[in-house]
Amino acid sequence: MSGLQGPDPNERARPQGKRNEQGFRIDPEAAAEPETRRTVISALVENEPGVLAKVSGLFSRRQFNIESLTVGTTEDEELSRITLVVEESDPGIEQVEKQLAKVIPVISVRELADDAVQRELVILKVNGGSQPDKVQAVTEMYDGTTLDAGPRTITVQITGDEQKINDAIDAFRQFGIREIARTGQAALARGERWTAATEGSQATEGAKGTYADDD
Amino acid sequence: MSGDGATPVSPNTETDRGDDAAEHDETDRTEVQTGASAVIRALENAGVRYAFGVQGGAIMPVYDALYDSAIDHITMAHEQGAVHAATAYGTVTGDPGVCMATSGPGATNLVTGIADANMDSEPLLALTGQVPTDFVGNDAFQETDTVGVTRPITKANYFSSSPDTVGGDVSEAFGLAKMGRQGPTLVDLPKDVTQGETDADPGGPTTPGTYNPAEEADQAAVERAAERFAQAERPVILAGGGVMKADACEQLYEFATEFEVPVVTTMPAIGAFPEDHELSLSWAGMHGTGYANMAITMTDCMLAVGTRFDDRLTGGIDTFAPDADIIHADIDPAEISKNVHADYPLVGDAKAVFEQFHAAMPQAPEADEWLEQVAQWKDEYPMDYEMDEDGPIKPQFVVEVVDAATADDTIVTTGVGQHQMWASQYWTYTKPRTWVSSHGLGTMGYGLPAAIGARIAADDDQQVVCFDGDGSFLMTCQELSVAVREELDITVFVLNNAAIGMVRQWQDAFYEQRRMASEYPWMPAFDKLAEAFGARGFRIESYDEVEETVQEALDYEGPSIVDVFIDPEENVYPMVPSGGDNGLFALSEDQL
Ligand SMILES: Cc1ncc(C[n+]2csc(CCOP(=O)(O)OP(=O)(O)O)c2C)c(N)n1
């Protein structure tokens, strides 16, 4: 038995408000589900062993919803750019950016605007050996390239934004798709705007992960 | 890795602990001839005085380099003991504690402690041996992917690749452990790298150019937040562990007392504000005081500094401070709005932010009614327990007796469980860095090795006591051999309820008293166990023995264990069940 004294829980003063799952104060009557959106985040990182493992480990550990992740070298051989497509609520997107920025070899992180230039590449192998002309026609329709043609299979490459890639894949289904390899989205900010960049290439506000909006 | 743009971190030369060892002159320093001596030199350059560890094949070159160094090595019985001791050393001093282990099992034995330090943002540097580079990936003898295993539980970790850069890796790992939001770092040291020749002096601690934690918060944001706080009718300060880590306790005190704002702490911040002050509401959360939980529930504006809004503090997010505008200051931007949305985010060091905030306050909040309300809650929900002189001993009483018998600056370490909660609830903490416990990870077995680390870190005239549970003590009691060998004056009170009591309490409350695997039908005699190790052993079985035996144990200069037979049915209250509403804390089981 505990000797603690005091008014019962039901005799105590009570607050008026309520928060939602994400810790926002809300109207207690209207607990709405957070809406998610799809967006592209770009990170510039130092090229060192383990950096990709750090980044991908972070996403699995924090249960971020990542649709694609690409990584490749940049104009500076010591740096790589990671492009992520995420589907998250606004606070979730903010967390992705901040957690990424915390990884020590990450130099800068930025969410790209909707008009960012985005491209993905897919390599498709279809059972089109018997009707090469039709395969060729579909390939041309999507500005694709034939990479390999044999008696039984034809392999083509299509590049474009995600919508175009999905449409192309649908169009090739008629031939029977044997295998697909997709790269995921690579993206850069449009026009003169900077994607996630180094200090030398844009005015930064000093702290890692923040940047002057130079639009 | 300390490449271009690295920022030097001042070594630990500013010590007011009244000793001279941090000021080794150049001649005391190791001459760099190999990767291993570069590692030791990096530690010396950082002002490191102690390392806790266990030897083994892959780390032998590093130990060999330690042979000639002025750094004291404390050989622990188990690597878990080494990492906990080093972590506690960091808690008490504010400087990274250093632990060392060999590859494979040595490194994996560190894992629990590294995860513990990571959860509590404790400064820690772990050095692990690794098989030679050519063997890596071949499943060689005692090979583990230590960098892979510890990646999610370190602030940064390094696989050293060359004798010329290994010292720099250690300097950077040390710098990162200490700077910004503190945390554990690890450097994995392949044997060929530590054995290889080099003469590269690693220099002092650095941080990489990509790491730029903010010092001051944005001034305009501070002013907006201060404007809001000054308008508060029911203001409260929630001080988190970051206040302690930033050595901002004085600034907290000045702010709270000048503007008359009640102070609630989180568990890691116990001692950041004197608990005997009338503005102190002690700590909030699952087993926090009723008045702290009322205050953080009813507030209309909370100034939260250096806290990550852990779920044991917030209870269910839906009911956490639901009427409050939240001003959240933290050095880690990722903590802002992670768990609780911040209406006024401030990114900066707690000390700087308090100073800025203090200066920006247009006036004190007009909160007389609130202060009266808070005082009334303190009267209504006193921390108390029932005592029957003929009955079994109440653990709370033991905590109070030890508190009364020791000086204000006494350091308390704990294991994890009910005893930890009683030690936090019934001891009045008035000084920073005197509460040393495992919070975020809740690691049983923390208490004894932490007492060893704290003893080594503490001033000579400062007392160190540990409140342990019988279950927690059994997890790391081998470290008693170290306390005896090193002649460390620590007193461990095992609050013995012959059970893993916290689990038993939950079973009684939430599992219809089905006490599965929580009661110990047989317990070793801890006093005799102490004697077998060469420590002093005491036993307390009734109330009339408590005061005298406590005094005797405290007076003994060396390690002693006091086996205290407490009421096995005693429970920890108040209690907010997991995910519950802080304002509805239960005072007894029937209120759950
Ligand atoms: C390493 C570890 N294993 C298991 C647990 C789960 N656990 C939390 S409290 C507790 C009971 C602790 O028992 P004891 O040390 O005797 O302390 P008491 O609660 O009886 O005071 C247990 C098993 C834990 N926190 N840590």
From TrEMBL, chain A:
Pathway(s) annotated for this protein in UniProt: Amino-acid biosynthesis; L-valine biosynthesis; L-valine from pyruvate: step 1/4; Amino-acid biosynthesis; L-isoleucine biosynthesis; L-isoleucine from 2-oxobutanoate: step 1/4
InterPro entries, A to Z: Acetalactate_synth_ssu, Acetolactate_synth/TF_NikR_C, Acetolactate_synth_ssu_C, ACT-like_dom_sf, ACT_dom, AHAS_ACT, AHAS_small-like_ACT
GO molecular function: acetolactate synthase activity; acetolactate synthase regulator activity
Disordered, as annotated region: 1-36, 190-215
Enzyme class: transferase
Keywords: Amino-acid biosynthesis, Branched-chain amino acid biosynthesis, Transferase
The enzyme's E.C. designation: 2.2.1.6
GO cellular component: a single term: cytosol
Signal peptide annotation: none
Record's compositionally biased regions (Basic and acidic residues): 9-36
All copies of domain ACT, residue ranges: 40-114
Gene3D superfamilies to which the protein is assigned, alphabetical: 3.30.70.260, ACT-like. Chain A, domain 2
Domain of life: Archaea
One Pfam family hit: ALS_ss_C
Similarity-based family: Belongs to the acetolactate synthase small subunit family.
Protein name per its UniProtKB record: Acetolactate synthase small subunit
Source species of the chain: Salinirubellus salinus
Automatic annotation (TrEMBL), chain B:
Pathway linked to the protein: Amino-acid biosynthesis; L-valine biosynthesis; L-valine from pyruvate: step 1/4; Amino-acid biosynthesis; L-isoleucine biosynthesis; L-isoleucine from 2-oxobutanoate: step 1/4
Keywords of the record: Amino-acid biosynthesis, Branched-chain amino acid biosynthesis, FAD, Flavoprotein, Magnesium, Metal-binding, Thiamine pyrophosphate, Transferase
Record-annotated Thiamine pyrophosphate enzyme N-terminal TPP-binding domain positions: 34-147
InterPro entries: Acetolactate_synth_lsu, AHAS_TPP, DHS-like_NAD/FAD-binding_dom, THDP-binding, Thiamin_PyroP_enz_cen_dom, Thiamin_PyroP_enz_TPP-bd_dom, TPP_enz, TPP_enzyme_TPP-bd
Cofactor binding remark: Binds 1 thiamine pyrophosphate per subunit.
Region (Disordered): 1-33, 190-213
Composition bias type Basic and acidic residues, residue spans: 14-31
Catalytic activity as recorded in UniProt: 2 pyruvate + H(+) = (2S)-2-acetolactate + CO2
GO BP field: isoleucine biosynthetic process; L-valine biosynthetic process; sulfur compound biosynthetic process
GO molecular function: acetolactate synthase activity; flavin adenine dinucleotide binding; magnesium ion binding; thiamine pyrophosphate binding
Top-tier EC class: transferase
All copies of domain Thiamine pyrophosphate enzyme central, residue ranges: 222-356
Entry-linked Pfam families: TPP_enzyme_C, TPP_enzyme_M, TPP_enzyme_N
Gene Ontology CC: one annotated term: acetolactate synthase complex
EC number assigned by the record: 2.2.1.6
Cofactor dependency: thiamine diphosphate; Mg(2+)
CDD domains for the chain: TPP_AHAS, TPP_PYR_POX_like
Keyword Magnesium: yes
Chain ranges of the Thiamine pyrophosphate enzyme TPP-binding domain: 415-564
PANTHER family hit by this protein: ACETOLACTATE SYNTHASE CATALYTIC SUBUNIT, MITOCHONDRIAL (PTHR18968:SF13), THIAMINE PYROPHOSPHATE ENZYMES (PTHR18968)
Stated family: Belongs to the TPP enzyme family.
Record's protein name: Acetolactate synthase
Source organism per UniProt: Salinirubellus salinus
Name of the gene this protein is made from: ilvB
